[in-house]
Amino acid sequence: MVNATTMNLSNKKNAYGFVSKFFHWIMAVMPIGAWLMGNFHGDVGSWKRTFIIAHYTLGIIVFILVGFRLVWRFKNITPKPVKKTNGSTLFPTVFLHFFTPSCF
Ligand code: HEM
C-alpha cells in the first residue's frame, strides 16, 4: 500500500508522479460531470438551478486547473513512453482520449 511518505509527488524517469496522475483523473471526471449537467439540467425538475450552478463551477475549475496542469507539466520531467502497448489497452486509450473530448 502507498502511504504519504513513500508516495512520489513528482514524475520520475519511468513513471508519472501522484500530482500528474491526480490532474489526469480529475480532468477526466470533471468535464464529464460538467457535460452531463449542461446537457441534462432540463430534465431534473427542482434540481435545475443546482445543476446549472454546479455546471458553471465545474467548468471554471477545469479551466483554472488547465493552468496549474501546464505549469506542473513544464516544471517536471516527462516519463519515457511505454515501449509496447497491447491491443486491449490501445483501443480504449485512443477512443477515450480522442473521441470523448470531441463530444464536448
Ligand atoms: C468542461 C467545461 C464545460 C463543458 C464540457 C460544458 C458542456 C455543456 C453542454 C454539453 C451544454 C448543453 C448544450 C446544449 O444543450 O446544447 C452546456 C450548456 C451551457 N453551458 Fe457549459 N460546459 C462547460 C463549461 C461551462 C462554463 C465554464 C460555463 C459558464 C460559466 C458554461 C455555461 C453554459 C451555459 C450558460 C449553458 C446553457 C444552459 C441552458 O441551456 O440554459 N459552461 N455546457
Offer a few descriptive terms:
104 residues; mainly alpha; 3 helices; flat
Question: How would you characterize this protein structure?
Answer:
With 104 residues, this protein is mainly α. It starts with 17 loop residues before the first helix and ends with a helix. Bound molecules: protoporphyrin IX containing FE. The site of protoporphyrin IX containing FE has 11 residues, from helix 1 and helix 2.
Bound molecules: protoporphyrin IX containing FE
What is the structural class?
A: mainly alpha
Portion in strands: under 5%
- Multimeric state of these chains? single chain
> What's the N-to-C terminus distance?
36 Å
Largest sheet: none
Can you give me a brief rundown of this structure?
With 104 residues, the chain is mainly alpha-helical. It has 3 helices and no strands.
Record the SSE blueprint.
Blueprint: H1 18-40, H2 48-75, H3 87-103
The structure holds protoporphyrin IX containing FE (HEM).
